Every structure is written in structure tokens, then in C-alpha cells.
Amino acid sequence: MIATEFHRAPETLTALNSRDKMRFLIVMQEEYPGSLESYKELTMLNARRTLGNFEELPASQATIDGKPALLVFYRGTLQKGSNLPVEFLSAFIASGKSYTKVSVWCVEPLFHDMQPAFEKMVNSYRSTGGQTTSAACPSRRLTNSTRHLRAALDCGALLPMAVKV
Questions:
Q1: DSSP label at 119?
Q2: I need a labelling partner for 91 at 20 to 30 A (CA). Which of 19, 24, 100, 115 fits?
Q3: Are 145 and 9 in contact (CB under 8 A)?
Q4: Model pLDDT for residues 98-128, shown as the tens digit of each residue
Q5: Distance CA 90, CA 107 (A)
Q6: Is residue 32 part of a domain?
Q7: For the segment 16-37, what is each residue's pLDDT rounded down to a tens digit?
Q8: For residue 159, what is the DSSP state?
């Protein structure tokens, strides 16, 4: 499902949640004049402000969509209302002075079960100038990017992800 509460920011390309609203994905893109590492640090500063008991886990370098990227795991508690523990995986992808952040997250008890699917979703990010690729869960065929990504969240499928930019 499209998570409309995340579409407020102009840099948000897509924001989705699973049908049970327990797993989430957001893709954001913005211009930034600094390095990939400093972009990651600024983003982590914001996470520290918005999450209670913030803990950043070791980051690793990657190549996503043929571009240099950093993969970062972090966790904390939601400070609004519930104090629920959540865990995140974010990929920071550099493309010149443009940076894309692909983040997936869920409540911490589900994260370890979802981690392999989350890692494959984040690593399969591809920016395209055209339609996104469609793929299938074991029981359904998907025809557009929103249904494709939502289904990946719902069934934990390890689907290639492409976002039109």
C-alpha cells in the first residue's frame, strides 16, 4: 500500500507499507554537495533526533545500481506514542551530487526474519527512465511499481526493485 504519510517531503520518490502495516519501504532522492560519508552522517543525525535509544550498527560499502553505496543498519524506539522498538536498513547511493536513500524497516522482533528479503530489496534498487520491471510473488503477477514493491513487502519475496526517476 502507498504510505501517504511519507509523501509530504518533495524528495520522496515512493513510500510503501505492507498490508499489515508492519513493514515499510521509502525511497528518497536529493541533491547534496558533500561526500557519501557526510550525507550518511547527516541522515544518521536526523535518525538520532527522531528515535529514542538510537543505536547505529556497523556500516558496509556496496555497489547498488552500478554506483557506490553505503549500507547502514540502525535501531531505536519510536518516540511518538508507542515507544515500539524498530530496526532499519538504509542504503545511501551516490550519483554525482545526487543521493538516493532506500530505507526498509519494521518492528525489531520481525527484523531478523525480514533481513534477507530487506537486503535483497535494497541491493536490487535500480533507477530507470521508464516503467519499472514487473515481477511475481509465488501466487501473483504484478504490473506496476507500487504493487510490485508492496507485494515484496507483503510476501517477503526477493524481487528486483526499480523506481522511475
A1: H
A2: 19
A3: no
A4: 999 999 999 999 999 999 999 999 999 998 7
A5: 15
A6: yes
A7: 999 888 999 999 999 999 999 9
A8: -
- The DSSP H or E segment spanning 9 is none
Q: How far apart are CA 134 and CA 51, in angstroms?
A: 34
- Which residue range forms the structural domain that includes residue 14? 4-125
C-alpha grid cell, residue 79: 518516540
How far, in Å, are 46, 48, 73, 142, 149 from residue 42 at the CA level? Answer: 7, 10, 15, 36, 27
How far lies 4's CA from each of 13, 71, 106, in Å? Answer: 12, 25, 17
The answer to whether the beta carbons of residues 117 and 157 sit under 8 Å apart is: yes
The whole-model pTM stands at: 0.78
**Which residue bears the cell 541522515?**
43
Give the closest residue to 23 by CA, choosing from 108, 126, 140, 143.
108
Retrieve residue 134's grid coordinates: 514487473
Tally of structural domains, the chain: 1
**Residue 40 grid cell:** 550518511
* Alpha-helix runs per DSSP H in the chain: 36-50, 108-123, 145-155
- The CATH code of the domain that includes 9 is 3.40.1000.10
